[in-house]
Amino acid sequence: MSEAHRFGSGPVQAAGPWSRYLFTGAVVVLCLWVLVPIYLLLVNTLSSPEAVATYPKRALPEFDTQSLAFFMNYAGVGQALWNSIKVATVTMILSIGAGAPAGYALSRFDFRGKDTFRVLVLMTRAFPLPLLALPLAVLYIRIGLDDSILGLALVHTTLALPFAVLITFSLFSGIPIELEEAAWTLGCNRFQAFIKVILPLVLPGIAASAIFAFVISWNEVFAAAVLTIEHRTLPAFLLQGLAESPLHLKFAGGAVLVLPALLFIFLVRKYLFSMWGIANR
Amino acid sequence: MYPRSLPYLLLLPSTLFLCVFFLYPFGLVAWQAFVTDTGQFTSEFFVEMKSHWKFNTAFTNTILLALAVVPFQVCLALYMATLVNGMKRGRDLILYIWTIPLGISDLAAGIIWLAIFEQTGFLNSMMQGMGFIDQPVSLLSYQNTGMIFLAILLAEVWRATAIVLVILVAGMGLIPKEYYEAAEVFGAGRWKRFTKITLPMLKPSLQTAMILRVIMAFEVFAVVVALGGTNLPVLMGEIYTWQFDLQDANVAAAYALVILLISISCTLLIMWGLRTPKEARV
Prior knowledge:
The complex is a heterodimer of chains A (about 280) and B (about 280). Chain A has about 280 residues and is mainly alpha-helical. Chain A is built from 13 helices and no strands. Chain A has two domains: about 15-70; about 75-275, MetI-like fold, CATH 1.10.3720.10. Chain A has helices at about 5, 15-45, 50-55, 65-75, 75-110, 115-125, 135-145, 150-175, 175-185, 190-220, 220-225, 235-240, 245-270. Chain A is globular, with a radius of gyration of 23 Å. Chain B is mainly α. Chain B has a single domain, classed as MetI-like fold. Chain B has 13 helices and no strands. Chain B has helices spanning about 5-35, 45-50, 55-85, 90-100, 105-115, 120-130, 145-175, 175-185, 190-200, 205-220, 220-230, 235-245, 250-275. Chains A and B meet through helix 2, helix 5, helix 6, helix 7 and helix 8 of A and helix 1, helix 3, helix 4, helix 5 and helix 6 of B.
């Protein structure tokens, strides 16, 4: 295979030096397009409250933690942060707990009703899920789940569960059934084979999809704002205060929201492609 | 080999969950929109919604935003995906950078773009630095809904193109390389290979990406609140107002049905528009 073909999976192949420059230029511009806004938020976050309100702005941060300190000590922020973590953790446990067995079943067995289940999972994508919070708000008051961590986590699990099913499905599908069969012939039963052979292999992937579920819950605003009053999560808390809070509070809040998410996405980057239920080569 | 019930047992938790927290609430929301607390069928909630002065604006704004954001996003993501595929070195790094917004919530994206667009923000500072303006301009005021619209548009494109990109890059990976080689042998240029091979072969991925994005676009909420407050009403924002501030769950449910209806019709439209004939599937 010639040099031109080796990377020829895509239709763009730089030919002359000019198209090479154009190509690099476009890539650089697009990287800046993604990174510069985040950088500007960080500049604001790492500047003193006075500097955030001054004009014109400087493009370099002062490395002053007053804004952040002010935000962290602001009444309700600590509680909201803690609520966010609790809701996201429950969401993570519920969606993996229910999703992983389903992913395993889809990848290993042929049975009647399999397609119906797949349709049910894929259908969740064609529906605006945050709307679920509306009827549930009414229902929750009746059954005493209103304004509770669990109630919100259940809605967030509806958002995260389809992803958990699809990711674990592709994880289990990537492990040859022969490995399990070998364990059976050596005397393991199905459960032992799963624990001893399959689980260690899929654990990193399961962790990634758990993190993804965490991020989905961490970032969700609408359902959180509708379903909680006293027990607000961080996004709901920030949303409620948007109209009246000073700028440096908003920016510090935004940064606290963004940074963990950035870290999480970095950790799960390898699995990004299986998250959409599409096989990755 | 295994008990026949095993797969069903494994599926049971998630099936139950989706029935209770996905199918049932959607039935419930329709019920709420049509039935009063005393159990009477009525269309009064829709009448109330329709006659509210903000409804038409909110509806138009939501549709216009979706129409402006989604096609732009799909084109940008297609371009980015072709760039990634033509990359020799650093593919993983670039892909990571471009997918960073995937982890950023709509609220955070709104706040990020607020840092740029607010009156003492970076856009004004930059324009002043370049001598275009003498003093900061109020960009996001209620007299300036065009600018608010533009800011929301940019924030949405910035935040949610990554999702389209991931789906398209994965889809492009599935196109057999032999097709491109054959096309090259017959003398097809770059553009021709893109339109005759990539685009048609990418239809299923485009379909998935567009359905996801259109539905997310109809749900636009926190970005709008962060950048425009209540100056640019959208459907989801109205739902929040009715549910939370006005404490009228029935009218909120009527709004929800409107979003549901346009979401489902768009999903069907996209499924039909980008269908792949059976004989053309790989």
